[in-house]
């Protein structure tokens, strides 16, 4: 009996040693492996798939059709064949289109949208439906409806359309201001008419200006800043949602950098939701307007040195700036006695005003400082 007790004690001691050794091995786990294991536990291998099931009923596919005259169709084909930059721009905005025969003269544009109200209101990109004669919306369950354009906003490149149906699953919008670089996000869209396609990636950057390579909507003047992601986006992704790991829409996918790989830009949800509310209520979203295009003069040539102010590169006619006497080549130095250094500074100063306000602008022209008083106008609805 004594020997058996000694053996039992020995086995217990050996067991404790083995347990300690095993815990020690786990405690010395490679940090990278531990991080990967924790990430898997936090998200799980099917997390995005689960979220897609949750969110996708609020994402729609859109096909808009424009009836073109033979002259318009011929001109468009010439542009596409002769101007490579136009061709690329059209391709990456989903505007390559599919043409019918000359008797039909139709241009089809594909895109996506997100349901923002259960009674049929849908948010999408304006360039998906801008010149459409008909807009067809297809839901996740396969039902299709003709849509009516409720509002357009050329400044943000957003539009609200409506289909005659109730009881839709409306998306939940999150707070884009809480995003952090490196967060996982995913997109659902209609790329190349592959309906309800899902792609995923990371938030690559926040508050990105894109004025050097965008079309002329608000981004051209630095008035809008975007969420940059490496989520693969293709023609037909425009207007679809960018979604966080809580299943919330935190952006509306807008455009990509053509010559790059997976550099895409989305309008932050806070702005998109605000403009969508205005479009539903009023059919338009009023924006303070000067009517100038600008660039930072220090961008003109390397080694030229820093130059104060923001260069005016175009003055629209008619516009508040034109009425006030502003000219191409003027340097905007101050807005309301506050110095400005970038186009975004000018846009931010303008945004602090209401339509109809008088704003004092200090400029430099031909080496001489001048003061102008500009009456803030309203952005034209056909702004592009």
What does this entry look like structurally?
With 384 residues, the chain is α+β, with helices and mostly antiparallel strands. The chain has two domains: 244 residues, Thrombin, subunit H (Beta Barrel), CATH 2.40.10.120; 91 residues, PDZ domain (Pdz3 Domain, Roll). About 14% of the residues have low confidence. It starts with a helix and ends in a 6-residue tail after the last strand. The protein contains nine helices and 21 strands. The strands form four sheets. The chain has a seven-stranded antiparallel beta sheet. Strands 8-9-10-13-12-11 form a six-stranded antiparallel beta barrel. Strands 15, 16, 17, 18, 19 and 20 form a six-stranded antiparallel beta sheet that branches. Strand 12 and strand 13 form a beta hairpin.
Strand adjacency order, main sheet: 5-4-1-2-3-7-6
Structurally, the number of domains stands at: 2
What proportion of the residues form beta strands (DSSP E)?
25-35%
Sheet having the most strands: 7 strands, antiparallel
Structure annotation, total helices = 9
Q: What are the segments in which pLDDT stays under 50 over at least 5 consecutive residues?
A: 10-41, 83-103
CATH topology of the largest domain: Thrombin, subunit H
Helix fraction by DSSP (H/I, runs of at least 4): 25-40%
Kindly report the average pLDDT value.
81
For the CA atoms, what is the radius of gyration? 27 Å
| Large-scale geometry | globular
| Secondary-structure content class | alpha+beta
């Amino acid at each position: 009996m004594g020997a058996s007790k000694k053996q039992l004690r020995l086995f217990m001691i050996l067991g404790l040693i083995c347990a300690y050794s095993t815990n020690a091995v786990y405690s010395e786990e490679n940090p990278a492996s531990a991080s990967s294991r924790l990430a898997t536990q936090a998200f799980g291998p099917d997390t995005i798939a689960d979220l897609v099931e949750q969110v996708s009923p609020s994402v729609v596919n859109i096909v808009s059709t424009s009836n073109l005259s033979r002259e318009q169709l011929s001109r468009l084909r010439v542009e596409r064949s002769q101007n490579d930059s136009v061709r690329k721009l059209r391709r990456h905005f989903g505007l390559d289109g599919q043409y019918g025969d000359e008797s039909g003269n139709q241009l089809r544009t594909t895109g996506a949208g997100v349901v923002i109200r259960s009674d049929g209101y849908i948010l999408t990109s304006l360039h998906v439906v801008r010149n459409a004669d008909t807009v067809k919306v297809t839901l996740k369950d396969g039902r299709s409806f003709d849509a009516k354009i409720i509002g357009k906003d050329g400044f943000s490149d957003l539009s609200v359309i409506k289909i005659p149906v109730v009881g839709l699953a409306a998306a939940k919008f999150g707070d884009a201001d809480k995003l952090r670089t490196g967060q996982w996000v995913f997109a659902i869209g209609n790329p190349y008419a592959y309906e309800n396609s899902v792609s995923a990636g990371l938030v690559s950057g926040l508050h990105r200006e894109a004025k050097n390579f965008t079309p002329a909507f608000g981004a051209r003047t630095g008035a809008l800043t975007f969420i940059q992601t490496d989520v693969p986006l293709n023609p037909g992704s425009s207007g679809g949602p960018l979604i966080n790991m809580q299943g919330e829409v935190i952006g509306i996918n807008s455009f990509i950098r053509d010559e790059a790989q997976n550099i895409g830009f989305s309008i932050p949800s806070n702005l998109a939701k605000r403009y969508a509310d205005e479009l539903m209520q009023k059919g338009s979203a009023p924006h303070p307007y000067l009517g100038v295009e600008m660039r930072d003069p220090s961008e003109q040539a390397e080694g030229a040195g820093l130059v104060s102010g923001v260069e005016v590169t175009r003055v629209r006619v008619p516009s508040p700036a034109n009425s006030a006497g502003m000219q191409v080549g003027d340097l905007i130095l101050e807005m309301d006695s506050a110095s400005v250094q970038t186009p975004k500074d000018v846009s931010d100063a303008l945004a602090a005003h209401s339509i109809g306000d008088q704003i004092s602008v200090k400029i430099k022209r031909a080496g001489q400082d001048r003061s102008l008083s500009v009456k803030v106008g309203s952005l034209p609805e056909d702004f592009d």
